[in-house]
TrEMBL record:
One of its GO terms (biological process) is regulation of DNA-templated transcription. It comes from the Bacteria. This is Regulatory protein. It comes from Streptomyces nodosus. One of its GO terms (molecular function) is phosphatase activity. SUPFAM superfamilies: ATPase domain of HSP90 chaperone/DNA topoisomerase II/histidine kinase, GAF domain-like, PP2C-like, PYP-like sensor domain (PAS domain). InterPro entries: Bact_Sigma-Reg, GAF, GAF-like_dom_sf, HATPase_C_sf, HATPase_dom, PAS, PAS-like_dom_sf, PAS_fold. The keyword Hydrolase applies. SMART domains: GAF, PP2C_SIG. Keywords: Hydrolase. It holds the Pfam family GAF_3.
Amino acid sequence: MITARAAASFEPVGRSVASARSFVRDSLQGWGFADIIDDAVVLTSELVTNAVVHAGTAAEVLCLRSDDGVRIEVADRYPERELPLQSAAVSMGGPDREGGRGLQLCAALAGHWGVEYTPTHKRVWFQLDLPERPVGTRAAGPCLPAELLPLADGRVRVAVVQIDRNGSIGSWNEDAEELFGYPGDHVTGKPLTDLAAWPHTPGTGTGIAEALQLSRWEGSYGIRGANGRVVPVYASHLRVRDTGGAPSTVCLLVRDHERAVLQTPLRGAAPDSTAAQDGQATDPFEVFIGSPAPDDLDGLLQRTVERARDMLDGDAAFLLLATDDETELEVRASTGLPSARQRFARVPVEAGRYGSARMPAVHDDLAAVPSAVPLLGGTGMRSVVTVPLKVEGRLTGSLGVAAEVPSRYSNEEALRLQFAADRIALAVESARLGELQRLRRGSLSFLVEASDLLAGTLDRDQTLALMAQMTIPTLATWCAVYTIADQASEPYLSYVLHEDEERIDGLKALLSKIPPPEPIPTPGARVWSAPSEAAHQAALRTSMRSLGLGEPSTVSSGIGTTLATAATVGGETVVLPLVARNRVIGMLTLGRPTDEHFRQEILELAEDLSRRAALALDNARLYSERTAISQSLQRSLLPPELPQVDGVEVEVIYRAAGEGNEVGGDFYDLFPIRDGAYGFAIGDVCGTGPEAAAVTGLARHALRLLAREGFGGPAVLERLNSAILDEGARSRFLTLLYGELWPQDDGSAVLKVVCAGHPLPLRLRQDGTVEPAAEPQPLLGVMDDLELYEQTVTLDPGDVLLCVTDGVTERREGTRMLGDDGLADVLTTCTGLTAGAVAARILRAVERFASDAPSDDMAILAMRVPGLLKE
């Protein structure tokens, strides 16, 4: 028989879900059915969500009271949207399927439920049966045989102890004297902590001082008696205040084995009809979360906050996870709050007036204490209840539910929420550790790949580009790299990258207009708010100008570009120093477009990357400086330009091996000695680097000086040999081909050459024959007494003289070597070519002889006598 009914309609908006929960809660509370309110609210929330969110129609909620229980019906106006049948268990689907999760909860929590279809409506109903309890009682237990009743002494003594606001004993009744042996006047005024033996490990749970501050607390501890022994007691604490407003705590204490006198009966879990039929026990975790539970951590956390909000009929809920050092809590899931702004925000564990996050807390009015829960600042929430998530006594997180009205929650709701938190803490921690393990594996792979890429280049610009490209989009949405040339220089914006290439120019323009971040060497990431503030100001000015409220702009950049740039840097921006060799060489700036905070794991990964990138960038700088010095020195060891020799074509090709960061030992020269006479030389100093460069410079300048003093070829080389030997340990042996050239009036040219240990020069005649143009003689820098001689060679018109260093003749491919014979074979194909063409063909043949890059420097000097022009 229906004894009462209540009905309400709700519009298809998200806020209607909370309104429906309040309607059902108020209705059942008014009927005195507090025992089934939680289950009714959870089921109503799911079904109304299906109607107003998924079906997109208005929802009608009908509550019917009967003698046996309560029937609640939720109807929507979308009958075509079918739901799974109760009898087809396999078709229930996953918990995230539309409609499936609500019906799974109906099957788990309701005694009966069903779905009814009409041409215009679809109605889902469920019935919750009332527990069988005597009328007029809040809680009751069954009748038990005497042998099953709790044990107690002949007389049960209940110690009543009142603790003042300072934690000192204010009153001590007679039962307390009998239980613990202290007269009242001996303990009055002493702190309770002097007597209490609290089973508490510091930093891992609620201490006695904290418990005395709670509005209600219940549990076990010990009291040291007058005989020195600890009496185990069960206590119930109630926080009260006197007429003057002074708070105190009333403690009721009994012997621990008599705890049934004070212990509040645990609220039993709702029956699971399906499990009961199968003879299986109901898992409280699955009842709260739903079965099956989400596999991923984010899904589990999001469903947890939604369930917690529904269970306490809140307007918002949030869940924070502790960092590895347990000093901060990180927002990981929320509902009813601006999650994009708060996600991954971090707050200290011990923040707020209410003390520690390691214990449950009820905040009656946040308007009175705005800083109590920093996370809820500016959200409109007035009251909140928070409970810790603990695993083996270790703080792993915090769960909270908030409402927009003050004084919504009491200690009873805190205990219910703590009960739920205890059921999910282990599952959350297991999922968190799994995610952390995956992140660390991914971070390790990322850093290994980053190190390989950074080690693969010594080019500064390429290093900057790699640094930015590796961070986008793995770590951030946009990135900017600042570099510092030296300690006296200001940071310079060197590279900017955004995952959307169309926004790079606007971002670069914005960052160029604001002062760069301070080059602070302190490790770790720090927040930089300047880009966001500058972008918002620029967007505001542009918007005002577009509305005619500001001064007209002379530059028409467009409101779209400005607003897009503001959105690009509108989120959190962090700066990491690039420190190498105890010096700040730049800053790595990472940013997000939204208010979502950077995760701690991402910041730690970015810090590791910044250290590797800083060293790679500094190595590239040092390499660039060394290369510039080497190239400058190499240029100084070669003639700036070759003179024009009348009647003789001259071509020189020089190729340094390596990457340009070492000075080669090969050199060449062609210079005028006196009218009509020219000196030429091509040589190779043993080795490379500064020592070889010193001998190269000595040889080239000594040749010019001695030749212009009138010394002949042998005398020039003998004196150069002495100068090299005078260098002592710094000396290097030198192979050198030196000669003097006299163009003749008949079109020929006379050469006098000395070949000191150098590859022999080759003469190409017009008929294609090739022959050595000199004989080998001892190299320089080895023996003191040298007896050198010069040989005279006449080049007829059309003849070519080819001089090379051993980098040409010793070109290798496996066991093959080009050699003198191979060079001669190539030269035979050069008949009729100009000197430039001859040198180019020789170089091309050398390069094609092997697939690898040349490992030795090469110098090619070609001289050709073209002959007289016929008139």
